[in-house]
Write the structure tokens for this entry.
Amino acid sequence: MEYIKLNNGISMPVLGLGTWALHGKECEGCVSKALEYGYRLIDTAQMYGNEKEVGNAVRKSGIPRKEVFITTKLCTPCTSYSAAKSGIERSFENLGVDYIDLLLIHEPYSTSLEIYEAMTEGVKEGKIKSIGVSNFNKNFYLDFIKKCEIIPAVNQVECHVFYRQKDLQNTLEENGTHMQAWSPFACGKNNFFNNSVLNTLGIKYGKSAAQIGLRYLVQAGISVIPKSSHPDRIKTNADIFDFELNEDDLSRIQKLDLNKTLFGWY
């Protein structure tokens, strides 16, 4: 596994397991498999309703807690200072941990600064290692960092070969925030897995379209959290560190960028 350093000096794996839409025993099983296959970052959220399953799988794995990076996120109804304080405690209870590696605001709210104040206090108390945001576009982000005390360590956003968000990444990096990609496969939209460019490069390197798409983002300095409920795909998604795309490959993939969201979050 490769790691990147966040703006507070903490190391975060560049690849993790996304758990959106995974529930119950399926979720716990997928997290367990991911950890078995070498994943060391697990991404969850209160909105997903699976923090308990994630926490159970991490504990049962027997892997030392310090070796597993857990991300979760606050959303409605945690949209005030006091509600965020309660929400943070709820995540601790659900996950069954004594600290959270990365806590994000799931999306922009009119009260984002209130939520972030509660999160900032968690950092000062040593209960939260890193804090950040999710789904903040360039304008939301720039306005937010003018007023917050701690610059977000991460902005987790839609990012894939069809929506690269290079301008946003540049802005984030200029201000010390790392960009992380949710849904790096675009949820299969635009026929991602059958894309001729990705599959042609896959044949060249002995990889799948999915692995080529992930490698493209990782080489661009973007961490990724692909989600899958299939053990074999969970395993192969992590097998992206033994090859490197060359400049011609990167140029071909860049031409796939439509420069527009496929999900409507923005």
